[in-house]
Automatic annotation (TrEMBL):
The chain crosses the membrane at residues 54-73, 80-101, 156-178, 190-210. The gene is lnt. PROSITE patterns: CN_HYDROLASE. One of its GO terms (cellular component) is plasma membrane. The lineage of its organism: Bacteria, Bacillati, Actinomycetota, Actinomycetes, Kitasatosporales. Pathway: Protein modification; lipoprotein biosynthesis (N-acyl transfer). HAMAP family: Lnt (MF_01148). It is found in: Cell membrane. Catalyzes the phospholipid dependent N-acylation of the N-terminal cysteine of apolipoprotein, the last step in lipoprotein maturation. The keyword Oxidoreductase does not apply. It comes from Actinacidiphila glaucinigra. NCBIfam families: lnt. This is Apolipoprotein N-acyltransferase. Belongs to the CN hydrolase family. Apolipoprotein N-acyltransferase subfamily.
């Protein structure tokens, strides 16, 4: 690495700057045009390089990008920030190698854009189920590219952003050749640059031609309770029952406001993830407090709670439908626990080396089914916290019959770090992708209501107690993205990988022919 840095110091520095530019494209900064600029920059820097040089430049791009993007993990420790960033940057290193090799082919901007999709496909799944943070699509949740999500999901948005950036790079290369080449008069000399620029504009504007369905088949009145926590950070729980009492208190106040006519009566109430900080099935006091709040408001409440798992070594992260008459009923168990946060891979070996992992005393037991729940008059899809980043989980929830989506989350550990804004951006993209209204319910913020077209209609401040009331549109129609599923992602990724293989074969054939001529 030191040798690569010395040999490519200038390009390495430029790659790092491009990586930082990409980080600034994401919330909380949200300068989304920088995502296109960063892609163009990496394409130019890897062009004309060997695969090994391209890999180094990809790593030099990816490491500062992820360090800045994931800085919210510093709450756990800077070693977590750097360690995860190195792992994620390794995927971008492979991307850099692919960009360098495919740049030798005609139509190289197309192959490069497909490789961006392939890189995200791998990173979203590996290791331990993947970590989708930092996808180009998540920097473009309210941009001209966003409507494309209704056609091909987040992967198609990533492809369009990468294609636009790569075409801009191709236009820059063509202009540079004009400056460096012989002076030839006539319009034909401008054709390559003009063509690349026009195609880049077409990729940028394609989303305007995509209709985003928003017409509601029905509506339901919801109230979303943000009870708040005792303190931000790793020890947000505070004293036992504090968080539960906060949500009970806010719900009882809502019931009083409804009775006095100061607030409309909801059809259902949504509490966030971990709104009960104690297992209501093993702690009678927690059960009684929840029942009191639910009966006071008089409608079903979706409660977030950690409950005992199937054995003493496991716990389950659940959303529980709590009825004012019959009590707890249907529930959803989080399918994708977070590695090292909600379970410890290779626990026996790693806890001997990393003592901090002892703070995760029991592993979360993963659920097996989708989060479609009948809550009062509405059939809603429950998705818990980081699951909103995973295409398959949200897709399966919608196709199983969810008429709107609920994201129960607890971001108290990462409050005021930018992480809640990044997660809310994902909710906005999911709304457009699936044509569904999205409710994000957070213990400490940001709680929000997102329309099916991705607009944020309401949102709370962080670390405040608040209740949002909204008339939520319910939809039954599926988008094209719902119908095609992951097919666009796998198709684009395979095209990228096949183009890389073709470039390698053609390169070897060309070297063989040159050697034979010599």
């Amino acid at each position: 690495m030191a040798h690569a840095l010395r040999a490519n110091a200038r390009r390495s520095a430029l790659a790092a700057l491009c990586g930082l530019a990409l980080a600034a494209a994401f919330p909380p900064y949200g300068v989304w045009p920088l995502s296109v600029v960063a892609v163009a920059g990496l394409a130019l820097l890897t062009r004309g390089r060997t695969a090994r040089q391209g890999a180094w430049l990809g790593f030099a791009f990816g490491l500062p990008f992820f360090v800045w993007l994931l800085m919210w993990l510093r709450v756990i420790g800077w070693d977590a920030v750097v360690g995860l960033s190195v792992i994620e940057a390794a995927f971008v290193a492979v991307l850099g190698a692919g960009l360098a090799v495919t740049a030798r082919l005609r139509a190289w901007p197309l192959w490069g854009a497909c490789l961006w999709v392939a890189e995200e496909l791998a990173r979203d799944r590996l290791p331990f189920g993947g970590f989708p943070w930092g996808r180009l699509a998540f920097a473009n949740t309210s941009t001209p590219f966003t409507p494309l999500a209704a056609l091909g999901g987040a992967p198609l948005v990533t492809f369009a952003v990468a294609l636009c950036g790569s075409l801009l790079a191709a236009a820059a290369v063509a202009v540079w050749r004009l400056r460096k080449g012989p002076v030839v008069f006539g319009p034909r000399r401008f054709v390559p640059a003009a063509t690349a620029a026009v195609l880049a504009v077409a990729a940028f504007a394609a989303g305007y031609a995509v209709p985003v369905p928003t017409a509601a088949d029905d509506t339901v009145r919801v109230a979303i309770v943000q009870g708040n926590v005792q303190q931000p950070g790793m020890h947000f729980l505070g004293r036992p029952l504090k968080i539960l009492n906060n949500h009970v208190e806010a719900t009882l106040k809502l019931a009083e406001d409804v009775k006095a006519g100061r607030a409309p009566k909801p059809d259902l109430v949504i509490w966030p993830e971990n709104s009960s900080d104690m297992d209501p099935f093993s702690e009678p006091q927690a059960y009684a407090l929840i029942t009191e709040a639910v009966r006071a408001v008089g409608v079903p409440v979706l409660v977030g709670a950690l409950v005992d798992g199937p054995d003493a070594d496991h716990v389950q992260n659940e959303g529980i439908v709590w009825d004012p008459e019959s009590g707890p009923g249907d529930h959803y168990t989080k399918q994708h626990p977070v590695p090292f946060g909600e379970y410890v891979p290779f626990r026996e070996q790693l806890t001997k080396v990393i003592k901090r992992l002892d703070q995760v005393p029991r592993d979360f037991y993963p659920g097996k089914g989708s989060g479609v729940l009948q809550i009062g008059p509405a059939r809603l899809g429950d998705v818990i916290c980081f699951e909103v980043a995973y295409d398959g989980i949200v897709h399966d929830t919608v196709t199983a019959g969810a008429r709107a989506l609920v994201i129960q989350t607890n971001n108290a550990t990462y409050g005021r770090t930018g992480q809640p804004e990044q997660q809310l951006a994902m909710s906005r993209l999911r709304a457009v992708e699936h044509g569904r209204a999205v409710v994000t319910a957070a213990t400490s913020g940001i709680t929000a209501v997102v329309a099916p077209d991705g607009r944020i209609e309401q949102q709370t401040e962080e670390f405040t107690q608040a209740v949002l009331s909204a008339q939520l549109p319910l939809r039954d129609d599926l988008t094209v993205a719902d119908r095609v599923g992951s097919a666009p992602e796998w198709t684009l990724a395979m095209v990228g990988l096949l183009s890389w293989a073709a470039a390698i074969v053609l390169g070897r054939r060309g070297r063989t022919e040159t050697e034979e001529q010599q």
